[in-house]
Amino acid sequence: MPARNPRKAKAQPKSPTRGVRSKRQRRVLCPSETSEIGDQGNNRDALQNQTQSIDSDTNEATRSLNWAVIVASVAEQPYPSQIQQYKEWRSAYRSLSKKSQRMPLKTKPHIGAGSKREDYCCICHESEHLENCHTCKLAFHRECLPAGCARNSYDHLFCLICVRRGWDKAPPVLTPPASPQPAPVQVHDPPSHASTGTNANSATIPHLLDPAQNLELQQEGLQTQSTLGEYEPSAFDQNTSDDVTYPGPAVQTGSESLQSARHKRKLRYSTLPHEVDESPTIQTATDSPQGNRGGRKSRYSTLPSNVDASLSVIYRELESIAMLRAEIQELRTQNTQYAQTIKIQEQTQVALRRDLGILRENATNSESTTKEISELRERNAALEAELLVSKEQTAAAKELKERLAHLLNT
Fold first, then answer.
1. Where is the composition biased (Basic residues) (predicted)?
2. Which CATH superfamily is domain 63-165 in?
3. Could you tell me if 181 and 95 are in contact, meaning their C-beta atoms sit under 8 angstroms apart?
């Protein structure tokens, strides 16, 4: 016998998955079971469709409820308060634009046509692809727009609330506040110049003075300029004098102006403290205007609040020019349409008048024809009467002829 290979002789363990195939018996389904499975699938699809329809109905109900709540809350407010809210909303845009001017270009907020808007839809409360109302802060999706919204020729959207207010045709006009009465501005006199009566800081603004007083001050200023001669201030004096705008002409004596100029030059070129403290009288004379400068307003300061408010109102009115132009264009188109309708009506009136003339002519002709017909009828009646008479006469003649013939035959 041949020698067996010991390697082949070893029994190799069979894995449960190797070499053995599990014979799975396929279950044959009955037709009743297949119909039951199909019915279950159809029921599942119907249930899904029913849940989707219920979800859509609930979403529409919640949307309509939210919009009804918004409309009711706005309707409860009186109309003057609504106009006041509109003005405050438009003024908020002006303050936002002023802040954005100070920001760099990359960090500026987005400012659209109008004031601050809502960043979500007021129906579904989602924030993408929004359309803003032109006269309020509400925003909508195109598919969420409620019934009653309107658009103008410039494709500006107006919600139902603004349409009911009539703001789609005539929005409220922003009028500037009444300007206050100008009051005389007085500047207090510094203590170092209290003895001098010609100081201009103790007087009012020159354009508020009487003409006689203003003329006297100008004459005094000319006299002091003649006593001073050709004095040219240094660059330091010019820089310090440009920082403050004085309300009136500064009139001083020649000695005081020269002392103040010398003291300013010493302050500019001196480095030691004892050089500055040599003349205490000059320091008191020159420190008082500097102390008084703190109370005065610089020419680079902002405008008063009432002026700023009136300017903001003017800017808002300028922004509404586009809407007014659109309204003017709409009115022009309406006028052209009305002119066309008037021309059409005039042409129809001309045609109706022509038809009326024809009818009148026909009426006159019909009257003449009726007269002729009546005459012909009368004539016909007379002829018929004559015909009857002639028939009777012929009948009588026939009888006589027959009698004569009978008599002759006999």
1. 1-11
2. Zinc/RING finger domain, C3HC4 (zinc finger) (3.30.40.10)
3. no
